[in-house]
Amino acid sequence: MFVGHYAAAMAAKAIEPKAPMWTLAAASQLVDIGWSAFIITGVEHASVDPSLPGSTLVLDYMPWTHSLPAALAWSAGAALLVMVLLRLPMWASVAVGLTVFSHWLLDLLVHRPDLALWPGGERVGLALWNYPVIEQAVEIGLIAICGAAWVASRKTLDGLRGRRSPSSDSW
Ligand SMILES: [Zn+2]
Question: In this structure, is residue 165 part of a structural domain?
Fold first, then answer.
């Protein structure tokens, strides 16, 4: 999953408008940003198998970004970081943390079983990547539904503020 992760950022923004959108967008991809850095530095491993349907990635070793405990740790770390560095209110920080964790749940839908439940432990994944048309429909559907929720929440906010200008809450 790639663009589908942004759906979680839009859903979080709809629920918690005090969390800046750029923070939520980065949060939704944080685990993959870390993964890219770890792949480049050789901490985690992946290869490509062109015969695979959907994503051709073989993600054979990524305990520090895509195991369940790692995802929980990145989520908690991100929530703490935005609370301390950006001085976000508690619920906005929680929204950022949950958005980071949403990445693992959405990856669970699409990855072939490569997400470890614990380091070195059982690997899970519902493998929608093996059905690329369905997988893309899910990603686009998530974006459409969560995008609509975000737009609706902004209209409600603007309505509550009694003005027509776009809401000025933080981006
Ligand atoms: Zn990922």
Answer: no
